[in-house]
What we know:
Blueprint (H helix, E strand, L loop, with lengths): L1 H4 L4 H9 L2 H11 L2 H30 L2 H14 L9 H6 L1 H30 L10 H40 L6 H27 L8 H28 L10 H25 L3 H19 L11 H4 L14
Helix pairs in contact: 3-11, 4-5, 4-7, 4-11, 7-8, 8-9, 9-10, 10-11
Amino acid sequence: MDWLIKLPVVGPLAVRLMRTHVWRSYETLDRVHWTRLAAAITFISFLALFPLITVAAAVGAALLDQQQLTKLENKISEQVPGISDQLDINSLVDNAGTIGLVAGALLLVTGIGWVGSMRDCLRVVWGRDDEEEGNPVLRKLKDGIVLLGLGATALASIAASGLGSTAVGWSADRLGIDKGGAGGVLLQVAGIGIAVVADFLLLLYLLTLLPGVQPPRRRLMVAGLLGAVGFELLKLLLGGYMRDVASKSMYGAFGVPVALLLWINLSAKLLLFCAAWTATQSKEAVDEASEDAVDELATAQRPAAVDEEDPGRKHHQRPARDGERDTDAP
């Protein structure tokens, strides 16, 4: 990057960029080869996604009526754009018990593996991947508990987002606000804001309890907010692509899965960036640590103070010859 810094106009801007927390977070990701970590998260998440959606749809099919099933399908479409078209709700209703049991067993296996892989990848960002984590059996049990906690947090997040969206729609109908006007746009922004809050709560769980770390509160809040806003933007941008482009592209039947893999990969990279944001020290902390290191090095290299009379002087003093006067004698 030295050549970039030396450029007349771009150079000063590049120097400023390299001093920001964003750049230092990127350097943290680059050191741990974050593209490989994102690929690992994408693979295991793709495997665990379909059992998760199938279990949710099967439980909903057994407990909800047709109108509520339609709302569930729309909610799945919002959270995982483009995938609802691949679900056969009628078949889920007819075989909810069998499908739910099989998908639940698969979800338990893939979910525990997903938790372990996610935890390992996040701990790599923190530089704690080499730490001993104890008995592997107990670790799997712990991963199962974390999976349940994550599922409860995700359900609470989705419920909060759904209630917020319903409240916004109900308010628009009650107040007679035109959804195409300025009031409707404001209500849509309010609905997105509620979804951002729900994503923020979910990210707090993923960034702290899953890797088992306690980052500074300020960095955690900023990372959670960046991740929540970024995740909603990804859903808005890729949702339209999945619905309008992927299903009609040259990939044919593979259009939606390929687009879904792209969405998961970008979400994984966003999560890793948020983790790097929390794991990277602030500029003030780095400067203070550098000053302390310089002071310690200077102290270590400083010669020991010499006493008024060197204790080893008498041992190295030349003995007086005959006829010479001892200058130290009284």
